[in-house]
Write a structure and sequence with these properties.
The complex is a heterodimer. Chain A contains 22 helices and 38 strands. By secondary structure, chain A is α+β, with helices and mostly antiparallel strands. In chain A, the strands form nine sheets. In chain A, strands 2, 8, 9, 10, 11, 12, 13, 14, 20 and 21 form a ten-stranded antiparallel sheet that branches. The longest helix of chain A is centred in the middle third of the chain and has 18 residues, at 506-523. Chain A is globular and about 95 Å long. By secondary structure, chain B is an alpha/beta fold. Helices cover 32% and strands 19% of the residues of chain B. In chain B, strands 8-9-7-6-3-4-5-10 form an eight-stranded mixed sheet, sandwiched between helices. In chain B, a hairpin with a 2-residue loop joins strand 11 (335-337) and strand 12 (340-344). Chain B is elongated and about 85 Å long. The two termini of chain B are 54 Å apart. The chains are: A alpha+beta, B alpha/beta. At the A-B interface, helix 5, strand 12, helix 8 and helix 9 of A face helix 4 and helix 8 of B. Chain A: InterPro entries: ArgoL1, GAGE, PAZ_dom, PAZ_dom_sf, Piwi, RNaseH-like_sf. Chain A: GO terms for molecular function: hydrolase activity; piRNA binding. Chain A: Residues 556-653 form the Piwi domain.
């Protein structure tokens, strides 16, 4: 995970994902579940299950009582302390009982293929159960370690396998008595009475067990000497050096154990950690020479705050929250025992670390969580730049082709490689005696093969553009060749537009315009000459021109940038998104340089511009009439108060080709703005020129702006609450770890492209895979959803936006039972990263939340495209489908 | 190191590293006594810089964890009879992430053996330091009798540290008879010193006595809470014949072993060298650009600051010693030629961060060859003077 991704994950972990990653959080104390585990509740006590309201809630409730009685003792709302996500969905276990689900998940059309996923089944002995005990001390003992020490004086009784957090004890065995009284001696001869009371006997599928599995699994990873960084585990023995860029890559794994339908499965994926051998001080020194003296501190703060640094001496990572220029290594601080010591002495004594630069400032990192439940907030960590190493990639590296290429050579894996790597984890588990012993003691084991099941390759959809219908080769997932020369479905004439360029790029600007003149007539775009404006190559100069020249009549602004410099891009986009909402298109001059690709690039730029101005490119047949598809994406700003911003886009016509954007700020997670957005969009639909939606859908990708094609399609009879983004966004997180391998295509090592996204063109497509096995269990998903997560499996095709696709069962039924396929191509029509426009890969501009309610008059002028809120159109292919319900 | 006395309940009995406490009147050491013992060993390591160190009765490997940070140590061994403890704590000794990013100068191997200190294992022969912290009081009389013969006679390290409770201190703890249920005995100072002197004489060691955990005011006569004997071998002759006789006598079971990346390994050295070279070159290049900029702007009006590394608002940058300065000044200077910036290898090697690496110019050239662009004669590293990514300070 990059530093940023990690920060992202952290930011998220504070909110709605918390419960989901319980295992991860608990793993901080290996083997010791924290005392937040649920206590038994009174029977039938279902209060606190949040979103269950109204009639739908009532019916679901009764169903729930029958089906998931086992979950009843577990109301996670009862957890003390921090705000927990509502676990309403835990109790919904209704899939098999819904007739439209029974068959629909298998599908019938297309060609069957054998697929395997990165899941391993976790198996337990027959009649396996986990025994949960409550442990009390008399007199009361407070220190957890002391409590453990006292309890494990009786290891002969308890046995070697145990998980104990100071209060709750898990054992694989049932003690002879329901309540066991023991007596232990402290070091100073005090006698302590210990009472162990059996509170629960948990079946393997109990949610508490899932937490337990994760705890145990993390224990295993430790035994295997894998090192934990963030939530992932890395193998320290096999680092890959890239000396040219001062990088070290550690291969590792992300893991989670969850229930998927009938089985508990370990889901694992390959992860790489990029480490840099550059200290924060090195970074500052180099920055110093590039900055005016008086701006240096400001610049350092801008570059460093929010970054994650690694301290060599204690193997910890910290987020830089501030820089204290008034302190230096000679400054003193108070140690826990009250004595004053300077940083210099402290690091020398404690870690034998020498600090050579005595004038460097000190980094400040605020702690994330309190010490223990109800504990005090520890003071900020003060770090010495010279001893802190930077982690993750800088924007500079991300944009450096040679760096990315080298990284890709090590981190981008073909399906076979990925399968092999994932298999290695299971090999480790099976070969390590200690791990096997631990598993045996608990009565658990893992399958040695990846989970395998069958999927279907669906037929290729037909593309409609300009009154013609096109077939295309699924091999390449690109139909730009086929559709070349055909007019777009609709295009706005380009009458009043600006082209801003620097003197150096005059030639490039001119040739772009000429090429645009050549390609646009065939597309049906009427283009007039642009207003050409030359500027100095400085951010300020661009902004000045924008302020002067952009008027309410300006349709689009094209900025030719001389480099990939992010700050300039950000400033331009920020101005044109928030201060003066106008569609804009940035192009890095270098991309126009190549003669042989100039026309292709001009075509793509024309398509993007057209989309941004509200044009429609192409469409596929939609089985759903009167449906509205809403896309939502979130950006978590790691700096500046960790604000999160949600962007929306919705289709507003029947062909699902016309987007409607919106955005909302938020601090409390997606739901608030999510529901607001959906309401706003509903109102939009009430406007006469839009078709009224019979159904709504949404696309969640709780991800830092990284574009993911994903769709959740809602159906009208599903109560609105079910469409709340809360649950969906969790899926977004979780699915990231699931991946589908395509062993069938191993030989060519190139799976048919219809299963991958294609970047660089404007199309990203996903084909629905219909499968029974790894459909997510009832946990954490919108009930009845099936999702699949297809990752780009063509390693040469560049970094992949992964795709999460979910659909409600009606849609699946549709897909499964109609003779023609119902695929879900997701088309990012504008600003797809990797396009000719400057790629804003991981981080869309953190625009100020443009809180323009769509109902306000201002909305009419809202640009059809925001960075960070790319327009998505999701279309369905298949037989015409009569709506029912 | 002081003692706090309080009348409160304390629960500081923790995993063997206990503090001697009682409910009524607590003698609380600050820092805790176990930490004082470890600090004692750390100070000893810092002073004597041993290469091979073994900790007998290493338990949860806490002391080893503290010792692995010392650059002098190249072999660190822990021995304990509790195999499970070794297994569950082994991973604490694996190299930190930072060790790969900023490797040690010298190799380090850490090994944990399961075995008894009264068994002979040739892999522990010839160490520079063997520590037995709070160990001997856990040995029964039979084992205690065999202990000197194995540790002093057979392993025969240059230095041995033995610590054990001082029973004279015990009356200050109200309830205590023995400080741990597993203690077979606790000696007073006389008993320990008699035993130690006898052993030292027999195996030709000299011994000094000290301790940690000062007694509270008014009770100075009882001596340190923990008494320590530091044994040093008198003659430094080659290991006796008994060693070669017993050659490769492996009794202990290796439970865990790990080795650290270090500059002694070619791959690691290359990584470090290339990294430092790139940093230095980039640093010099940016400084050069800055000088150019200031000259251009300052021409005629403001005088160019003499030392460009000193800014008005702050000073950053490691200070060089006079010797380092001289070395840098005497080396060939970086230069510019047709948009390329050149830094001679000799110049690079003069900077302290590269100077400390065990490479000469020739070696450096061969290590850099496939990662860094060298000038045609191979005497300098070369990069483009201007880079599209450079921030222009005027553009902000």
């Amino acid at each position: 995970m990059t530093g940023r991704a990690r920060a992202r994950a952290r930011g998220r972990a504070r909110g709605q994902d918390e419960a989901q990653h319980m295992g991860a959080a608990l793993s901080q104390q290996p083997g010791y579940p924290q005392p937040r585990l649920p206590h038994p509740l009174a029977e039938g006590d279902l209060v606190g299950r949040g979103r269950q309201r109204g009639a739908a809630g009532a019916t679901a409730k009764s169903q729930e009582l029958q089906i998931s009685a086992g979950f009843q003792e577990l109301s996670l709302a009862e957890r003390g302390g921090r705000r927990r996500r509502d676990f309403h969905d835990l109790g919904v276990n209704t899939r098999q009982s819904l007739d439209h689900v029974k068959e629909s998940k298998t599908g019938s059309s297309g060609i069957k293929v054998r697929l395997s996923t990165n899941h391993f089944r976790l198996t337990s002995r027959p009649q396996w159960a986990l025994y949960q005990y409550h442990v009390d001390y008399s007199p009361l003992m407070e220190a957890r370690r002391l409590r453990s020490a006292l309890l494990f004086q009786h290891e002969d009784l308890i046995g070697r396998s145990h998980a104990f957090d100071g209060t709750i004890l898990f054992l694989p065995i049932r003690l002879q008595h329901k309540v066991t009284e023991l007596s232990s001696l402290t070091r100073n001869g005090e006698r302590v009475r210990i009472t162990i009371a059996l509170t629960n006997e948990l079946p393997p599928t109990s949610p508490t067990c899932l937490q337990f599995y994760n705890i145990i699994f993390r224990r295993l990873l430790k035994i295997m000497n894998l090192q934990q960084i963030g939530r992932n585990y890395y193998n320290p023995h096999d680092p890959i050096d890239i000396p040219n860029h001062r990088l070290v890559i550690w291969p590792g794994f992300t893991t989670s154990i969850l229930q998927y339908e009938n089985n508990i499965m370990l889901c694992t994926d390959v992860s790489h950690k990029v480490l840099r051998s550059e200290t924060v001080l090195d970074f500052m020194l180099n920055l110093y020479h590039q900055t005016e003296g008086h701006k240096f501190q400001e610049q350092v703060a801008k570059e460093l705050i929010g970054l994650i640094v690694l301290t060599k001496y204690n193997n910890k990572t910290y987020r830089v929250d501030d820089i204290d220029w008034d302190q230096n290594p000679k400054s003193t601080f108070k140690k826990a025992d009250g004595s004053e010591v300077s940083f210099l002495e402290y690091y020398q004594q404690q870690y034998n670390q020498e600090i050579t630069d005595l004038k460097q400032p000190v980094l400040v990192s605020q702690p994330k969580r309190r010490r223990g439940p109800g504990g005090t907030m520890p003071g900020p960590a003060m770090l010495i730049p010279e001893l802190c190493y930077l982690t993750g990639l800088t924007d500079k590296m991300r944009n450096d082709f040679t760096v990315m290429k080298e990284l890709a050579a090590h981190t981008r894996l073909t399906p076979e490689q990925r399968q092999r790597e994932v298999g290695r984890l299971i090999d480790y588990i099976h070969k390590d005696d200690n791990v096997q012993r631990e598993l045996r003691d608990w009565g658990l084991s893992f399958d040695s093969n990846l989970l395998s099941f069958s999927g279907r390759i669906l037929q290729t959809e037909k593309i409609h553009q300009g009154g013609k219908t096109f077939d295309y080769s699924p091999q390449f997932a690109d139909w730009s060749k086929e559709t070349r020369g055909a007019p777009l479905i609709s295009a706005r004439p380009l009458d009043n537009w600006l082209m801003i360029y620097t003197r150096k790029n005059y030639e490039a600007a001119n040739s772009l315009i000429q090429n645009l003149f050549k390609v646009t007539p065939a597309m049906g775009i009427q283009m007039k000459k642009a207003i050409m404006i030359e500027v100095d190559d400085r951010t300020e100069a661009y902004l000045r021109v924008l302020r002067q020249k952009v008027t309410s009549d300006t349709q689009i602004v094209v900025c030719l940038l001389s480099s990939n410099r992010k700050d300039k891009y950000d400033a331009i986009k920020k101005y044109l998104c928030t201060d003066c909402p106008t569609p804009s298109q940035c192009v890095v001059a270098r991309t126009l340089g190549k003669q042989q690709t100039a026309m292709a690039i001009a075509t793509k730029i024309a398509l993007q511009m057209s989309c941004k101005m509200g044009g429609e490119l192409w469409r596929v047949d939609m089985p759903l009439k009167l449906a509205m598809i809403v896309g939502i994406d979130c950006y978590h700003d790691t700096t500046a108060g960790r604000r999160s911003i949600a962007g929306f886009v919705a289709s507003i016509n029947e062909g699902m080709t016309r987007p409607r954007p919106g955005a909302g700020g938020r601090t409390q997670g997606v739901p608030a703005s999510g529901s607001a957005g959906v309401e706003q969009l509903q109102r939009v639909h009430a406007e006469p020129d839009h078709c009224v939606p019979g159904r709504r859908g949404r696309r969640p990708a709780e991800d830092t702006g990284e574009l993911r094609g994903s769709a959740v399609l809602g159906l009208p009879e599903v109560p609105r609450e079910r469409l709340q983004p809360k649950t969906d966004s969790d899926c977004g997180e979780e699915t990231r770890e699931r991946q589908i391998f395509c062993p069938l295509w191993r030989k060519t090592s190139e799976p048919p492209a219809r299963d991958c996204h294609r970047r660089g063109g404007h199309q990203a497509r996903v084909v629905r895979l219909l499968h029974r096995e790894p459909g997510r269990a009832e946990r954490q998903c919108v009930p009845h959803t099936l999702q699949c997560h297809l990752r780009q499996q063509r390693p040469e095709a560049g970094p992949h936006p992964a795709a999460d696709v979910q659909a409600l069962p009606h849609l699946l039924q549709l897909a499964g039972h109609h003779p023609r396929p119902c695929a879900v191509p997701v088309c990012a029509q504008a600003g797809l990263p990797g396009g000719p426009e400057h790629p804003q890969r991981a981080k869309p501009v953190p625009v100020q939340p443009p809180l323009l309610p769509l109902t306000s008059p201002a909305a009419a002028r809202f640009p059809p495209s925001l960075p960070g809120c790319q327009a998505f159109t999701v279309t369905f292919l298949g037989e015409t489908w009569e709506e029912h319900g | 190191m002081e003692i706090e006395e309080k009348n409160v309940q304390s629960n500081s009995v923790v995993d063997g590293n206990f503090e001697e406490v009682c409910p009524e009147k607590i003698i609380k050491f600050k820092p805790p006594l176990y930490k004082q013992r470890y600090q004692f060993v750390r100070d000893l390591v810092r002073r004597h810089e041993p290469k091979k160190v073994a900790d007998l009765g290493c338990g949860d490997t806490e002391l080893l964890r503290l010792l692995k940070i010392y650059p002098c140590i190249q072999l660190l061994v822990g021995v304990d009879i509790d195999e499970e403890k070794l297994q569950s704590n082994g991973h604490h000794l694996s190299p930190y992430l930072g060790e790969f990013v900023k490797p040690r100068d010298l190799d380090l191997t850490v090994t944990l053996y399961h075995g008894s200190v009264v068994e002979r294992d040739s892999r522990l022969v010839g160490f520079d330091l063997i520590t037995c912290i709070e160990l001997i009081e856990h040995l029964d009389s039979d084992h205690l009798a065999r202990f000197p013969e194995v540790v002093f006679g057979y392993l025969s390290p240059v230095m041995i540290v033995i610590s054990t409770p001082n029973s004279e201190f015990n009356p200050l703890f109200p309830i205590v008879t023995l400080r741990d249920a597993d203690h077979k005995f606790e000696w007073n100072r006389m008993e320990f010193q008699t035993w130690a002197l006898q052993v030292a004489n027999h195996y030709n060691y000299s011994v000094e006595f000290t301790g940690v955990g000062k007694p509270p005011a008014g009770a100075e006569h009882v001596g340190f809470c923990t008494q320590i004997g530091v044994f040093r071998k008198n003659s430094r002759e080659a290991p006796g014949p008994c060693v070669s006789e017993q050659h490769d006598h492996h009794v202990y079971k290796a439970v865990y072993t790990t080795s650290y990346p270090s500059l002694q390994q070619e791959r690691v050295l290359k990584f470090e060298l290339v990294g430092e070279v790139l940093f230095q070159v980039e640093h010099l290049r940016l400084r050069h650009l800055r000088t150019l900029r200031e000259e251009k702007r300052g021409a005629g009006t403001v005088p160019v600051p003499k030392d460009p590394s000193v800014a008005p608002s702050l000073m950053l940058g490691a200070l060089f010693t006079e010797a380092e300065k001289a070395r840098i000044e005497n080396s060939p200077k970086p230069f510019c030629e047709g948009g390329r910036f050149f830094v001679p290898l000799q110049r690079l090697l003069a900077y302290p961060r590269l100077h400390r690496l065990p490479v000469d110019e020739e070696r450096m050239r061969s290590l850099l060859a496939d990662s860094v662009c060298l000038s045609s004669d191979g005497s300098a590293v070369t990069v483009d003077l201007h880079n599209t990514w450079d921030c222009d300070p005027e553009d902000n």
